[in-house]
Design brief:
Length: about 500
């Protein structure tokens, strides 16, 4: 395979991811403008931020399954087109309830990230996967910064109270236009390589009964986040209390059905515990505990990033009495770091080991949260920018190191694994934003710092992926032993 083909595909993919993030985060820089235009209360504005990330949780799980089944090209194209519609309609909203419904729908576009993880994993081998995923994540994630400081500038070109509407609509139109380009030129796999679709539908496959139990338990926080969203909507009088009880009941049923589906897909695991047979062939086994640790790390790093980016521009605007555009530029420093740190985290993970890099990055992330907590109105703006940018560097490096591990765990399941990890990024953001809405900014940052320290400790249990070549006749004893001890034996195509 020619190297230029790989990098062409990487460029097509990160631009798609970039545009999804521009759409996803086109709300944050205009929070104050929208609140003034639609006469929103502070509680309504905070609830809107939670709506903007809530449905990304089930969307990432669903998209992870779809991409493993139908391939990245079709799924990413559909995402770009489908979610552009509520984005454009959001620019026309005149009532608070319209914004809530449309931002809930728009939040699903955050699932596009999962598609690219699988696509890049198909085109790059283990020697470059960290760097490639880091470039994909870093350049794509820069869409958050572009939305934060770029869209207010676009809005300023039209001026007046409707500038935010023009900026939102333009971002949606760009997604539709790019969808045609992506569908025309993207390929699911390199020439001569077959795209391996997941054979089982509806849930992630695991390798042991213990892993099955952990996977079932991990469904609970995702459903609880949707329950929290319902509770917040009751608080702003958009959902009647009696309706919320029906929703809670529906979510409970949904949780039960998902657990039954997981058990059904992993029937062989349950039967293996009874008849003594192996649950899976050695080359198909992997340690789900590694996925669970990555989920916790991503909840801290990406979840914290989402939460901070959602509130930081408005927070700085009020603290320092800044213009919307200048506050957006300062707030964007948090995401600006992604251009450097995310590829760097992946590259260093490839070169020096993934666990050491993610440990260092998580330690810096936790300290970064505590650093932002110290900011007050007496600080010079240059010092604020330094602290925000430094915290962002560590967070993005941790994200890059995280996803130079995820694609190596079990390639045919990469979409679902990335979907689960990505969903937990949103679990973290919903949890942190809920804490912000119930307490203070200080408690918000201290909580993220504490959870970051917990994730740092958990990463000492993380193991480097063990790679073997897919066409080898059998797994070596060393690899099998590593897999049994919690080190995933990874089939690289």
């Amino acid at each position: 395979m020619h190297a230029s083909s790989r990098w062409k595909m990487l460029n097509l993919t990160w631009v798609s991811f970039f545009l999804t993030f521009v759409v996803w985060f086109n709300l944050a820089p205009f929070s104050s403008s929208i609140a003034r235009a639609l006469h929103l209360t502070p509680e309504q504005a905070k609830t809107l931020l939670i709506c903007n990330v809530a449905l990304t949780i089930p969307a990432r799980i669903m998209v992870g399954m779809l991409v493993d089944r139908f391939g990245p090209r079709r799924v990413f194209t559909a995402i770009l087109v489908i979610f552009a519609v509520p984005c454009i309609l959001c620019a026309m909203a005149t009532e608070y309830w319209q914004l809530v419904v449309l931002r809930l729908l728009v939040s699903g576009i955050g699932a596009g990230f999962v598609v690219g993880i699988r696509l890049v994993g198909e085109w790059f081998d283990a020697r470059q996967i960290g760097l490639a995923e880091g470039i994909y994540g870093g350049c794509g994630n820069f869409g958050m910064a572009a939305a934060t400081f770029g869209l207010p500038l676009i809005a300023g070109l039209w001026g007046g109270e409707n500038g935010w509407r023009w900026a939102m609509a333009i971002s949606g139109v760009l997604c539709v236009l790019w969808a045609g380009v992506f569908y025309r030129y993207a390929k699911d796999a390199p020439p001569g390589k077959h795209f391996k679709a997941s054979k089982k539908k509806g849930a992630l496959e695991v390798s042991s009964r213990g892993d099955l139990m952990v996977l079932c338990l991990m469904q609970i926080p995702m459903v609880v986040c949707l329950g929290v969203l319902t509770w917040k909507l009751v608080g702003v009088h958009l959902v009647a209390p009696w309706v919320s009880y029906l929703i809670y009941g529906g979510l409970t049923v949904l949780l039960g059905q998902q657990i039954l589906k997981i058990r059904s897909v992993n029937r062989v695991v349950l039967e293996s515990g009874r008849n003594g047979k192996a649950a899976a062939e050695p080359e198909h086994r992997y340690s789900f505990s590694q996925v669970a640790i990555l989920c916790l790390c991503y909840a801290v790093t990406f979840g914290g990033e989402l939460a901070v980016e959602s509130m930081l521009p408005e927070y700085l605007e009020k603290m320092f009495h800044l213009s919307v555009a200048l506050a957006g530029v300062l707030g964007a420093g948090f995401a600006f770091a992604s251009l450097i740190a995310r590829p760097l985290g992946g590259y260093l993970g490839d070169k020096f080991g993934r666990r050491p890099i993610i440990l260092i990055s998580l330690a810096g992330s936790a300290l970064g949260f505590f650093g932002i907590y110290q900011i007050d109105h007496t600080w010079p703006l240059w010092a604020v920018m330094v602290v925000v940018f430094t915290a962002g560097l560590f967070l993005m490096a941790a994200n890059g190191a995280n996803f130079c591990i995820a694609p190596l765990i079990r390639k045919p399941l990469t979409g679902q694994i990335a979907g689960l990890i990505g969903a937990y990024g949103n679990v973290g953001s919903v949890a942190f934003l809920t804490i912000l809405s119930l307490t203070s900014v200080g408690v918000f940052f201290v909580t993220m710092g504490v959870v970051g320290a917990i994730a740092f400790a958990a990463c000492f249990l993380l193991r480097e992926p063990v790679r073997h070549v897919a066409h080898e006749a059998r797994v070596t004893p060393a690899e099998l032993t590593a897999s049994d001890q919690g080190m995933p034996a990874v089939a690289m195509g």
